[in-house]
Sequence to fold (228 residues):
Amino acid sequence: MLILHDYFRSSSSYRVRIALHHKRLDFEIRHVDLVQGQQRMDDYKALNPSAGVPTLIDGDFKLTQSPAILEYLEEEYPANPLMPADHQARAYVRQMAMIIATDIHPLNNLKVWKGYVGKILGADEQGLQAWYMHWIHEGFAAYESLLGASNLTGDFTLGDSPTLADVHLIPQLYNARRFKADLSAYPKICAIEKNCMRLESFQKASPESHPNAPNGIEIIHGPGAAFL
Fold:
């Protein structure tokens, strides 16, 4: 069975859970509490020297970094694909996914945002919020613009089925909603979010559905979410 080391609110872990559920793969979750610093413990760093999540174990094979994990799952377990067959469409999906994975996420993840901008550079809560929102809006504005300019856009980023672009987008939207971002400028993105969150694979992967989610967690992407 596949083993996924993750944290319930980690957006990169959320991506991998969506893909695993979409492909209907059995997997075991081993929770790594980022807030408590479990990712920096020696036994975990032996698995993942970057001291992050997710880490996927498939038999004797170990893999870190969610984009690499997602590509591996797509190639090793091709049923229920998350990438189209057409080469140009595949490139388009990667382009959209990378807006999230390279333009937003690295700047807003915990080790950069609070670990460096907060602790090392000394940003206060107002400064941290401003930093976070700046990169959310920079990335979402680009994503929304490309959706509007493309004839490939449908109910999802590409046509009428979810792809790896949506797998990247939805966890970032969870974070944006959690931190009260104003998403009114992104109607196409929000329409895709609604369509994704009606699917069982996305619902089951949500932080609220995670077995290690604390009781009383705010419902953002789970059943009964306000935006639905």
The chain has nine helices and four strands.
